[in-house]
């Protein structure tokens, strides 16, 4: 028997990382569904976790841009310490002129605020750009989640296939062994038939060892991908590989719905909106910026006389404040024009990708849909071939029970049946994977129920 090569190449690449993983605590035996395994993979995958933090970072920038609309500058500066005492005034100075005086405490605080008034659109455009930046990161996270889900499905269906092939090899081995025991002492059996039977048993033993190794490797790879302990048994609720009950709408409907779901399309649309907002913000920088500002200042030093003379500057005893209107106008026209041109160019760079992105998504969905249709037809053919092989095997068994000399025909029927069973399992794997690939191509459109009943 041979297992489908693409699946096992992926398993071998994942298994390279397994020896370096530390052993984890034992978990109680549990039978996992595909949905539970995908959820665990999303929880433990490093790329998904990194994407979540990127979304958090983008959301923090959005909150910062939103907060800049109301009192972007509001702060209090406070100072305290010791200063030399100084009692008196310019008209009544102290008699001690040595410069050595006792020290006393002082405290000083200042409240400042600035509130932009015009142009209001500048803050709104910056807030819009930051909000779309969150959408961009969320789209990247959605794409990562789709990739992880597809990888888990590939390993999950591959593990079920390996389990089925292992059971198939065991069944064939047991039946050939039972036939061989009955024929050991049969003098009527020809030497050619004895060689055929023995060679078939040897070939089957080699294939059993290979399938057993592949089964263990598939289970370890799926456990690693989903963050499960590698020293705990990985049991699946499904007992065997069965075709998924997919509800696939027509191709045109898939294409239309995928445009709303595909993460890269949503990322492109969010990027266009963000660049458009940045372009408008760059144009708003030409306008004068009007703002209202002001604050309060307070200081006290008990050891120093409060100077009431307005022409005497006192940094240690005062209480004042005020409100003013300010205007700031940038005159670096060449720099402002460059900012506008850069923002416009970045917007155009994204805009020209829209037609090709649409066609690319349409082609991707079309390719996945054709792959699904082909896999469906292949599964039907494999099911029919499997039915014919089973019928031949039943007839060969009946002939063998009537005439043991037909052992060669029975071995040929066994080999054909085993190949057809293997082909049917691989066709099942290809069909289920084609549905998973179609779900991914449509941006996560659910074509099958998330929790399937055990077959």
What's the overall geometry?
elongated
CATH third-tier fold name: Outer membrane efflux proteins (OEP)
Q: Helix amount, in percent?
A: 55-70%
CATH class: Mainly Alpha
> For the terminal residues, how far apart are their CA atoms?
24 Å
The number of helices is 10
Note poorly predicted spans: 1-26
CATH architecture: Up-down Bundle
Key attributes of the depicted protein:
4-stranded antiparallel beta sheet; Outer membrane efflux proteins (OEP); alpha+beta; two-stranded parallel sheet; 61% helix; 10 helices
Q: Can you walk through the features of this model?
A:
- The protein is α+β, with helices and mostly antiparallel strands and 455 residues long.
- The chain has one domain (5-10, 30-89, 102-441): Outer membrane efflux proteins (OEP).
- The chain has 10 helices and 6 strands.
- The chain has helices at 5-15, 34-44, 46-67, 120-183, 191-225, 251-261, 263-284, 333-351, 354-402, 407-441, and strands at 31-32, 73-84, 103-118, 235-236, 289-300, 318-328.
- The strands form 2 sheets. Strands 2-3-5-6 form a 4-stranded antiparallel sheet.
- It is elongated and about 140 Å long.
- The model is unreliable at 1-26 (pLDDT under 50).
């Amino acid at each position: 028997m041979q297992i489908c090569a693409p699946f096992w190449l992926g398993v071998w690449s994942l298994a390279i990382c397994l020896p370096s993983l530390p052993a984890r605590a034992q978990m109680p035996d549990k039978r996992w569904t595909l949905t539970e395994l995908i959820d665990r993979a999303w929880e433990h995958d490093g790329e998904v976790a990194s994407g979540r933090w990127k979304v958090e970072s983008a959301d923090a920038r959005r909150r910062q841009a939103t907060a800049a609309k109301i009192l972007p500058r509001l702060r209090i500066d406070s100072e305290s310490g010791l200063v030399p005492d100084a009692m008196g005034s310019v008209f009544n100075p102290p008699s001690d002129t040595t410069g050595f005086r006792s020290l006393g405490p002082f405290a000083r605080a200042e409240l400042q605020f600035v509130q932009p008034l015009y142009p209001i659109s500048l803050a709104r455009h910056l807030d819009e750009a930051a909000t779309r930046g969150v959408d961009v990161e969320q789209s990247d996270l959605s794409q990562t989640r789709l990739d992880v889900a597809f990888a888990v499905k590939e390993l999950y269906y591959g593990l079920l296939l390996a389990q089925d092939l292992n059971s198939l090899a065991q069944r064939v081995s047991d039946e050939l062994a039972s036939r061989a025991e009955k024929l050991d002492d049969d003098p009527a059996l020809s030497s050619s038939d004895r060689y055929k039977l023995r060679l078939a048993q040897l070939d089957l033993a080699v294939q059993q060892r290979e399938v057993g190794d592949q089964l263990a490797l598939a289970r370890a790879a799926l456990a690693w991908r989903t963050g499960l302990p590698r020293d705990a048994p990985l049991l699946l609720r499904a007992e065997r590989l069965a075709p998924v009950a997919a509800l696939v709408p027509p191709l045109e409907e898939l294409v239309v719905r995928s445009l709303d779901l595909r993460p890269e399309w949503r990322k492109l649309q969010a990027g266009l909106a963000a660049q458009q907002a940045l372009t408008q913000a760059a144009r708003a920088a030409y306008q004068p910026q009007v703002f209202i500002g002001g604050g309060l200042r307070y200081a006290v030093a008990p050891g120093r006389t409060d100077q009431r003379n307005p022409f005497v500057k006192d940094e240690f005893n005062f209480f004042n404040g005020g409100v003013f209107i300010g205007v700031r106008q940038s005159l670096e026209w060449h720099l402002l024009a460059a900012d506008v041109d850069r923002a416009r160019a970045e917007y155009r760079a994204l805009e020209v990708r829209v037609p090709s992105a649409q066609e690319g998504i349409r082609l991707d969905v079309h390719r996945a849909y054709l792959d699904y249709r082909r896999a469906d037809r292949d599964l039907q053919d494999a099911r029919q071939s499997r039915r014919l092989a089973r019928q031949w095997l039943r007839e060969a068994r009946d002939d063998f029970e009537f005439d043991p000399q037909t052992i060669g025909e029975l071995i040929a029927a066994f080999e054909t049946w085993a190949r057809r069973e293997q082909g049917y399992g691989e066709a099942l794997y290809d069909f289920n994977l084609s549905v998973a690939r179609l779900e991914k191509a449509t941006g996560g459109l659910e074509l099958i129920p998330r929790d399937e009943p055990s077959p």
